[in-house]
């Protein structure tokens, strides 16, 4: 559709865009990214024919840009420039109707049914029909932006050039506008080239990205290949992290500000509060967590940690909601709490501290083995899940990588199995060695300050402490449980 070959351009003597080459397929969305002043708008001006090339060629449908008359070009390309505050005193309908100009034959050409249909569709699709008879001067920035998009769409272009289209739009209209463009690429065979400052929006909606720096191409590829931590950090001169999107295989860039959580918070045994109803810990600052808890599960940042006693026959249609209510009622905020449940007596918890070199951890375990399970034979069992019994918490006074968080979960799980072996705990149904209970839960939480921990497998510094700590605490917690059972 569009082909840019070795294109250079700029203003007067100054060459701003240098030797840029790329092609855009029909129905593709190409995003142009780059820091302020990197030449994005200049390149757009070159593509739309406003700014002549100093070198190279640009073709649209294999025909050189210079071979098109301005009216012919307007039938192919529509441009939505960056929104400016000034606007003429036209109504919304008049403004959108101007988009039909390239399709009209002569000054006094009749307004055709096709013109009317294109204007109505464009206004409907962009949600501006309700303002149809209002002056665009009376609209908000976001509403005006949608009117100019409607004008561009009414033009029925094959190629749409956009400069920061989501500027001024709230989240909902950003999504609507970009969903609409994506849809038009298939329904109207539209091709889109758009400048973006928001890297994450560009990642979500663009098929490919062109990243510019000082007028030159840094990279031209899929979002996954362009939005890499090292590339973005170098080009934008900012600390970032590239993370996964929860639903799509598209990277999302998160800024890492220079201000972090200030003081270095250390988790110690003294922070635990144990009552007959629960074990609770409120950290001085939020901790990064990974857990399989009832609330606050998965990856997150949490400040409150609760392991709550529930009766053996606890049954609730929505234990998540019920647990949130319990946590809120007790004065913690459910959104910042990792909450677990256990049927064992919480007074029997075992909490111990471990330290090696610069690194320290606190392990807390509540354990009961009434519903112990041999995972290898669990497929033979039919009974329902009951409240969790072996709940393990591991607090790390260090900074963990993502790998370390996951390896810490694995190491802790292996250690728990070892504790059950040591005590010869059996699955009461199969009479084979148990590997856990039916609903065990695990938390790894880290202060994310101090010693950096890249790995947490069994023979790493952290892994060794987790291995020793979880085995010792689990064994002791099961002994406490057995003592109470035999004693009662
Ligand atoms: N009309 C002009 N005359 C002279 N120089 C210009 C003109 N327009 C832009 N420039 C210069 O060209 C360079 C690139 O500007 P351009 O607007 O293309 O950057 P950009 O990547 O779109 O920036 P931004 O993200 O800030 O919109 C800048 O150094 C700018 O000062």
TrEMBL record:
Keywords noted in UniProt: ATP-binding, Nucleotide-binding, Translocase, Transport
SMART domains xrefs: AAA
Domain ABC transporter per the UniProt entry, residue ranges: 2-239
Matching PROSITE patterns: ABC_TRANSPORTER_1, ABC_TRANSPORTER_2
InterPro entries named in the record: AAA+_ATPase, ABC_transporter-like_ATP-bd, ABC_transporter-like_CS, AdoCbi_amidolase, P-loop_NTPase
Signal peptide residues on this chain, from the entry's feature table: none
GO function terms (MF aspect): ATP binding; ATP hydrolysis activity
Residues annotated as transmembrane: none
SUPFAM superfamilies for this protein: P-loop containing nucleoside triphosphate hydrolases
Protein name listed in UniProt: ABC transporter domain-containing protein
Organism: Jeotgalibacillus campisalis
């Amino acid at each position: 559709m569009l082909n840019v070959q070795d294109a250079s351009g700029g203003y007067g003597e100054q060459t701003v865009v240098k030797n840029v080459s790329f092609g855009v397929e029909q129905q593709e969305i190409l995003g142009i990214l780059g820091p302020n002043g990197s030449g994005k708008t200049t390149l757009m001006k070159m593509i739309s024919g406003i700014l002549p090339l100093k070198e190279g060629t640009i073709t649209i449908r294999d025909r050189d840009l210079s071979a098109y008359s301005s009216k012919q070009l307007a039938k192919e390309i529509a441009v939505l420039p960056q929104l400016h505050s000034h606007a003429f005193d036209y109504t919304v309908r008049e403004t959108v109707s101007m988009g039909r100009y390239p399709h009209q034959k002569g000054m006094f050409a009749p307004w055709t049914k096709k013109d009317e249909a294109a204007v109505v569709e464009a206004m409907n699709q962009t949600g501006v029909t309700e303002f149809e008879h209002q002056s665009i001067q009376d609209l908000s920035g976001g509403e005006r932006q949608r009117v100019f998009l409607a004008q561009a769409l009414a033009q029925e272009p094959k190629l749409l050039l956009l400069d920061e289209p989501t500027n001024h739009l709230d989240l909902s209209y950003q999504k609507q506008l970009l969903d609409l463009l994506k849809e038009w690429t298939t329904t109207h065979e539209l091709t889109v080239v758009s400048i973006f400052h928001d890297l994450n929006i560009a990642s979500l909606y663009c098929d490919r990205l062109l990243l510019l720096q000082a007028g030159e191409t840094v990279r031209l590829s899929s979002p996954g290949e362009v939005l890499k931590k090292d590339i973005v950090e170098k080009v934008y001169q900012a600390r970032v992290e590239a993370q996964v999107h929860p639903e799509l295989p598209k990277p999302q860039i998160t800024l890492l500000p220079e201000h972090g959580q200030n003081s270095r918070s250390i988790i110690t045994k003294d922070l635990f509060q144990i009552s007959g109803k629960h074990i609770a810990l409120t950290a001085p600052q939020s901790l990064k967590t990974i857990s399989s808890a009832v609330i606050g599960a998965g990856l997150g940042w949490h400040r409150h940690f609760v392991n709550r006693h529930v009766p053996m026959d606890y049954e609730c249609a929505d234990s998540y909601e019920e647990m949130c209510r319990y946590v809120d009622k007790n004065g913690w905020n459910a959104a910042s709490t990792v909450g677990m449940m256990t049927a064992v007596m919480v007074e029997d918890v075992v909490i111990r501290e471990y330290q090696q070199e610069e690194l320290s951890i606190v392990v807390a375990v509540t354990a009961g083995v009434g519903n112990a399970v041999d995972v290898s034979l669990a497929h033979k069992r039919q009974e329902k899940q009951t409240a969790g019994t072996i709940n393990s918490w591991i607090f790390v006074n260090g900074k963990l990588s993502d790998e370390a968080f996951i390896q810490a979960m694995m190491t802790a799980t292996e250690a728990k199995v070892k504790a059950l072996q040591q005590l010869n705990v059996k699955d009461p149904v199969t009479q084979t060695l148990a590997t856990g209970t039916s609903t065990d839960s695990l938390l790894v939480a880290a202060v994310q300050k101090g010693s950096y921990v890249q790995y947490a497998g069994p023979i790493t510094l952290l892994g060794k402490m987790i291995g020793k700590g979880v085995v010792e605490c689990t064994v002791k917690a099961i002994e406490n449980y057995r003592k109470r059972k035999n004693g009662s």
